[in-house]
Amino acid sequence: MTTTEFDAAEYLDSPEMIATYLKVAFEENDAALIRTALNDVARAKGMTSMAAESKITRQALYKALGPNGNMTLETLLNVLRAMGVRLSVSG
């Protein structure tokens, strides 16, 4: 039997799917999971276009979304805008 590694980025092919995926990640309140989900979406949309749309260099984007990334709020908002989603708060 042959197996392949699962890559969520391969399934993030619509704005609705992206929004749902990120919503679930944010609901978990786990910074590493959120960073991974943002990385998956960025790869699905293409890192080069994400870098251009977010006005962040590709290298900085890879670093921010990498396993040890710790992006600023400004970077997070730029990345979310480039992904076509908005951050929302509810109580």
Automatic annotation (TrEMBL):
Pfam assignment, any one: dnstrm_HI1420
Family matches, as SUPFAM superfamilies: lambda repressor-like DNA-binding domains
Protein name from the UniProt record: Addiction module antidote protein
Species this chain originates from: Parasphingorhabdus cellanae
Lineage, highest ranks first: Bacteria, Pseudomonadati, Pseudomonadota, Alphaproteobacteria, Sphingomonadales
